[in-house]
């Protein structure tokens, strides 16, 4: 349970006591944030005393009488404003005129409670203020978390882009200084490796752009009736050269024509990612099976490989940004670490999901379900 | 290298395959025989088959301290094998890491510590110096 501090400032002792008594054991339930709020109540009889107490421990809610013996309630508001403090102030006044309301609101008051008021009226206004405070606290927490995630993403991205640059720089240095000797074959290898690293970098940038477009919602989605088998076939053809070079077969199994209203580009990204992963992380002479099935509600795409597989622990974090399973078996496989995270985000656009089951050295099965 | 000498064997260990290839090419062109390994595990295996004349070891591989472990093992096999440790620690963390400064790194079983990116001339200079001594 969260506890909020309330400071009641009024020159009438009876008012201070009544408010303290009403709120001491009061609990606000906030179903929208699944939270409960309790209160501690402190009091002050003058504006000067209130400011002293505010400086010592900033209250969340200030109940402030308009008319006080020394400095007025409005003066206190002004002081709070210049100190840039986050306090929800509720003005208590017997002289609730439009004019006083406007002045107080201009100086930052949150609400008004006209005297005399019942305990229920008091509780109602406190409940409202608490909801606002808790929601704004949560919004701040979320913004902070978002900021951290973003920062982490950028750090990893910078690292992922720097690594191929360093490699290519190294190769260029060798070419410039001729330190790999006089055999031209060595330099061909240098060019090949540089091209591979450049290619990896280009793929990372393309994945990054895909992901940014999906996340920002800026990508224009063009929904039309799409033949899922045809998309799978074109993904197969894209990956086929690298599969054939390692003698890996890719078979598509689908007993009927499967169509759905979808953005063709999005389905292409999903199938390309899954099939190219199934080849990349396969063993030589391995097999990739793509099975597409459907019922009235959904389309199920299952991609099974006979590759290196992974442990349950590794599978658990697989769909997060920049997660690449790093071990002896994957060290020479290039990837951006964004592909599966993109697949997951796209599946969510179709109210679908993606899952994996895997066994080390046996293979992995990825299942994508898309709602029609 | 003097011609009368047998070809010197250098073990290079780094989990970055491009860096490994770059070192291998340049060292071979400079007349060394190169034994390369991509991990602590591979390096340990190679060490059972051959005795290198010098080792160049990356500090941080799949485990943070793989380079330490490996250089410790090399020195245990033969304390006269010079070990050159290469590291990107300085570049990545800004922490200065220099074996030669004082004796405070005596626990580090390396003869020389070089910061990445490595300048090949400097590396070659260090290898020659260590092989003479």
Query: Which CATH top level class of the largest domain in chain A fits?
Result: Alpha Beta
Total strands of chain B: 5
User: Which CATH C-level class of chain B is it?
Assistant: Alpha Beta
Mean pLDDT over the residues of chain A: 88
- How large is the count of helical segments of chain B? 5
CATH architecture of chain B: 3-Layer(aba) Sandwich
Overall body shape of chain B: globular
The figure for the number of domains of chain B is 1
Spell out the CATH superfamily of chain B.
Response regulator
Short description:
The complex is a heterodimer of chains A (372) and B (133). With 372 residues, chain A is of the alpha/beta class. Chain A contains ten helices and 13 strands.
Structure description:
By secondary structure, chain A is of the alpha/beta class. Chain A has two domains: 2-143, Response regulator (Rossmann fold, 3-Layer(aba) Sandwich); 223-371, Histidine kinase-like ATPase, C-terminal domain (Heat Shock Protein 90, 2-Layer Sandwich). Chain A has helices at residues 13-24, 47-56, 73-82, 98-106, 119-177, 184-216, 228-245, 264-280, 312-316, 339-349, and strands at 2-9, 28-30, 35-44, 61-65, 88-93, 111-114, 223-227, 249-253, 259-263, 287-294, 298-305, 353-359, 363-371. Chain A has a six-stranded mixed β-sheet, sandwiched between helices. In chain A, strands 8-10-11-13-12 form a five-stranded mixed β-sheet, covered by helices on one side. Chain A has a two-stranded antiparallel ribbon with strand order 7-9. The mean pLDDT of chain A is 88. With 133 residues, chain B is an alpha/beta fold. Chain B has a single domain (9-132), classed as Rossmann fold (3-Layer(aba) Sandwich). Chain B has helices spanning 17-29, 40-49, 66-77, 89-93, 120-132, and strands at 9-13, 33-37, 54-58, 83-87, 112-115. Chain B has a five-stranded parallel β-sheet, with helices on both faces. In chain B, helix 2 packs parallel to helix 3. The longest helix of chain B is centred in the first third of the chain and has 13 residues, at 17-29. The radius of gyration of chain B is 14 Å and the shape is globular. Mean pLDDT of chain B is 82; it is low at 99-104.
